[in-house]
Amino acid sequence: MKIEELKDWFTTYKQSAISGRYIHLEHIKPLIDTISQKAEIEQLGSSENDEPIYLIKKGIGSKKLLFWSQMHGNESTTTKAIFDFLKMLSDDSNKLSQDILKHCTLYIIPILSPDGARLYTRLNYNKVDLNRDAQNRTQKESIVLRELIDSIQPDYAFNLHGQRTIFSAGETKNPATVSFLSPAGDEKRTITTCRKIAMEIIAEMNTVLQQFIPNRIGRYDDGFNINCVGDTLSTLNVPTILFEAGHFDNDYDRERTREYIFYALVTSVSYIAKNEIKGDHYKTYFDIPENGKLFYDIIVRDVMLNGKNVDIAIQYTEELSENSVKFIPKIVKIEDLQNFYGHREINADKRTIQNENVTVEVVPENELLKFRLNDELFSTELTKS
Prior knowledge:
With 385 residues, the chain is of the alpha/beta class. It has helices spanning 3-13, 25-35, 77-89, 95-103, 114-119, 140-152, 193-209, 229-235, 255-274; strands spanning 40-46, 52-58, 63-68, 104-109, 156-162, 178-181, 217-219, 240-245, 295-305, 308-321, 324-335, 341-347, 352-353, 358-363, 368-373, 376-381.
């Protein structure tokens, strides 16, 4: 895959109509209406709060690929990239797109949890995590997905998620901007043929992405949980590739990460279209470091507490307000954090606090992040994107 060609494609096919973190059905419905001119659109069913769950079907090939995004409603980065990819596939002049559609049929659920997307929450309308409902299938969304799986019998499954800013690529100072997983199909995490096939595809994506974001690709933990959809699919011998869209520097809207997810989608699907994958080249999957948890959003360094040098860790919580996602800073830890990293680090120059009397607030009018250490106040510009 040529790097400059991928860059040009992203610039050409990026769907400018959707951006940021808050993406729900009203944002994507106009795109679905446009896509309907060159793809089959079907309403598979409804959510627990009666929002439609759409399926986009595109291609005529014998290889069946199933994608679902926003199973967790607040994980929208992959949804944006899916629509960028669909725009590319709709370009009749793009030879790679035509090759993909000749050899593959793509089944895409752009938002599996429309209620969660509207409420901007990991959970659905009934406060159920759909990715822990694969076996009991207590929710309408879980039933819709499983019925589709049973109906089409996919050859490959793409489980598209987003991950928090806490993750590092291994035990390093590099954030895990994109992470992948070939889910286990049993407690022993047996390396089955179906897992090897998924691992080989992930290894191919890693080779390409390393040229864009070297040392920022992670491998998600493969602990087995039969209640997760990916693990369930692995028990059914369906090669499953889990995407986790993570953090890039100052990219809290995940627009840079969106770009890398687009590259990964193009790379993986074209690799499937062009090859009969048997899993023979799976071993380099294990060269990808397993994710660590070494990051906070902000670390204030070099603070004196009761005569002891400590650091203050701050993590953003995401809150929906007036149809926009606000990033609210919260102090989560005060201790020696020399083995951790901040996406942003601030030197407090040994300012003193006593009895952990420290507060943090944002001053919206001038976008300052203010720390009150006892009666002393200091501030720094707040820049997230």
